[in-house]
Every structure is written in structure tokens, then in C-alpha cells.
Amino acid sequence: MQPGERGTAAEQRANLAATFRAIQPLLRDGPFVVTHGNGPQVGNELLRQELASAEAPPLPLYIAVAQTQAEIGALIAAELEPAAGRPVAVVMTRVEVDEADPAFQNPTKPVGPFYDAERARALEEERGWVVKEDAERGWRRVVPSPRPLKVLELDSIRILLERGILVVAIGGGGVPVVSRDGRHDGIESTKASKRATAARWPSFARAGTMKSSSGSRRGACAQKSRPPSTSSSRPAGRRSSRARKHSKRARPERGSSRPQPREPL
Fold first, then answer.
1. Burial class (CB in 10 A: 0-12, 13-18, 19+), 37
2. Fewest Cβ atoms nearer than 10 Å: which of 3, 66, 107, 250?
3. Class assignment of domain 1-98+156-193+208-220?
4. Where are the domains of the chain?
5. Quick check: 180 pLDDT over 50?
6. Which of 19-23, 113-117, 220-224 has the weakest average pLDDT?
7. Model-level pTM?
């Protein structure tokens, strides 16, 4: 998304097409992974859920992360495949975090729309949220940002890379999950940062990796080198009348969900 854009599918596809044209020579051969931010898209999804909450139940935050991985992945694949002349696979990617991480005791990451104090307190009671005042602009939900431990789909991604397939993965830092009784359950959190996730993702740093920012003015950057190691490694993160009526109670987020600067993995 570029400054002044609303984030329509057509706008995002045009931005992606321009990005992939600029790096087309890098896409022709060798292993290549594309990852992306999702702050504005998650903010929009949470706003849609809030405005429609009387008609459809809101979903957990980790589901919004998964939804935007698919949403942005579909847009990327539509423009990346013809630019590269190679098949593309979009992988819904989970990242394991530690349920005992201290971040869960001190949520600090603002997400979603702004609320007035009355609505914020009601949501705190109804949904068990933690809400805090944000820079005197209103009240917002805050969630934990635990340290990422490992990417669960890493082996699957390696297999796709070895077969010459371009991979879109770990969007938004990954869907946060915790390990419980032999299964992985989604948990309400965000990743600490894309940089922290990248630090736990060394095999992708050795492969060709591209970070396509969900809102950066400059779009994306790319890096290519030798194929990933096969040895085991631990990886590193126009509105309707109804919407206008609710705008004073739930305003689109204009803080942390704003586009992030481009950042290579």
C-alpha cells in the first residue's frame, strides 16, 4: 500500500506488479521466499469484525493473521507467477511461541480500531481484552508480543524450494501458536517483530528471501544466495452508512498498523 491509498485489491496488485517487475531478474532461478507484513490488512479485518459484530461473531486475532496471510498471498501469487515464469506456492505459516513468555503478563502491542472509554471498558468485560489509552487518541486493545521460537512449516517450505517452486510464507510474522498436549493451539498475540522472526530463520537468510512490506513506500527488497541447508536448524516474526455511524466508536487504526519500513530478512 502506498500513502493515500485505501488498500483495495486493485491497488495492492498494481503495487506488487511494479515491485516484481523491478526485481524480475532475481526471480528466474534459485530458491526464493517472499514474506510480507500485514499490519494495515489486520487492522482492516479487525475493524470489519467490530462493525459486523451484531451480525457475525468476531474471530480470534490469530485467525485474522491467518486470513490476511491467505489474502495477501493470493495477491502476491497473482503477480509473482507471471513475473517469474515459475510456479508459486502460498504457505499458511505458524510460528510457535512460549506460553510462559513474560510478554503474556504485560501486553503492549496495540491492535485494531480506537474506541471511546465507555466502549473500551465494555469490551474489556465482554471479551476479556486488555485495553489501554493510546496517545490521547482513544482506547485500543493491546496484545502480547512474545519471542518467536520456530517456524512449524519450515520443512515443507524447504521441500517446495528444492523443487524450484517460489514460496510465499510467514506473512505477518506467522500465525502465533503454543504447544499443548501434543498439539499446536492458536493464541492471542502478535510477533515481536519481523526482524526477531528473521533472526530465528537462518536457513531462509541463506536462501533467496524477499520481504514485501504491506505498506512500505519503497515496496520490497530482495536477497539471493546459495540454497538452504537441509540440516536441522531452529528458525527465528468508501465506507457504508453503518460504518460512518460507528466511526466515533471504532476508528481505523492509524498507529502501529501503519505500513512498516522495508526490512530485508
1. buried
2. 3
3. alpha beta
4. 1-98+156-193+208-220
5. yes
6. 220-224
7. 0.74
